[in-house]
Amino acid sequence: IYDWKKSDALAAEALSKLGSATADISPHDIVSELRPDQMQMVEIARAVGQNAKIILLDEPTSYLNFEETEKLFESIRGLCSAGIGIIFVSHRMRSESFPTELPYCVTASS
Nearest-CA neighbor of 68 among 46, 110, 40? Predict the structure, then answer.
């Protein structure tokens, strides 16, 4: 028998670890009805909930506006502070808001 209460509690805990970016997301929300930034947070929360030590984010800001990107970076900073490694891949870097505690490599491609 599936334990829905335990599942909800684990999902809520994982979402809470991402800070204010997930304040308006409930474990009962239907993911396909969420905004793109919320969907992104749910995916990251899934990794956190599985006790990931390293999370690869490939173009996580591609569909996010500036405010949503700032919330994502706030969550990334919190994860880094909690000892979770983040690999962040992006073709558009906003140097003024990129988490400076993350090491980064800039390459040019043709």
Answer: 40
